[in-house]
Give the backbone structure.
Amino acid sequence: MALSDQQINALAQNAIQRASAGDFAAAEPLLAQVADARPNSGQALHLLGQARLKLGRFAEAREPLERAAKFLPREPAAQVNLAGCLSVLGAHAEALVALDRALKLAPDNPAILHNRGRALEALGRTDEAEQAYTDALSIDHRLMPALSARAGLLAARGDWAGALADLDMALTNRPDDAQLRLRRGELLLAQGDWMRGLDDYDARLDLPGHWTPDLPRWQGEPLDGRLLVYPEQDNIESDAAMRDTLMLARLPGVDAAIQCSAKVAEWLDLPTVRRGDSLAGFTAAIALRSLPKVLDWSLHTLPPPPPLHLKAEPDDRADAPIGWFSTSDPPPNVAVERNPEHVARCRLVVGDDHAPTHLAAMLGIPTLMRLAHSPINSVDWLWGPQRGPSPWYHSIETLDGDAAEALVARLPRC
């Protein structure tokens, strides 16, 4: 039975009241009834689409928002909300069209310009995206999302100064924003600026995704008990946790125990504990990646690597296989050993930035480490910006991951 105008208006008022109170789950079915009764009402369709966006039902929100945008061609919000829905669904080209319509209606709206930059960036049109962010910032120079987004693009093309300027400006508005501080710290550290970068880098510990023991965070003060040093990865058995432990467990003169996996405990000649063991007797804890800050390390003042129980027993035959612990394929006609359990027997090791490669370098085995760099996999700041011999291990040489010719040329000399 068709609803009367009075019934439709009552449904709409009820729905709007519920939505205003934040109860979108209750508002959505009421708005759906209104939209069914008034299928050509742009406002009803727009409200229904917005309620579904709030509920995270993006696929269901698309159809009413597309219809609303057609019925409300002069309403920027209808175009913007459609664009937001399309972006979440991965339809970035369609989102850009909607944003261009919105921009014609509101050419001086910095938020629309920023969203346009996001759509362009998602489409790989980074130069245009950067210009869109710049246009947004020319209207509102403190627009946080645009500053953050443009900083990412500038850093990706090597404009460190521009990226840092944008992050500094963003942090004047939100000085305690841990994500922004971390990004600034990582940018400084990638350039080798440990002095300025390490303090910001510790902001990562205030973000989700880091395992932390129930102990006070050590800041370098004298302790009345033992110090727990731990990898911050949730999975202590992961390659990343093992690699960080091997690289960073350097604590001469500190009464500490290293929390690590059973495998790493077999290798290290240091006091170790397992995750889950009692923390009785420990008075503070520090993440391995915070040691450079607290102990004032630099690439020129690194302590020596930790001692090992394991000893190198290399096979010195000229035709003995070399350890190959890289995701790239070895050169043709080169015999390789891929089993990490046999690292100590290798006369030479080639590998990525993973635990077996670090173990080889700690054992004094000549080691070539390939440091891959891509937009989604940046070289760890710990290595510094220079390639070649590294102060971390006396037997290691670092190479850019894409330097295949240099690697092939280097092998015969080993």
The radius of gyration is 28 Å.
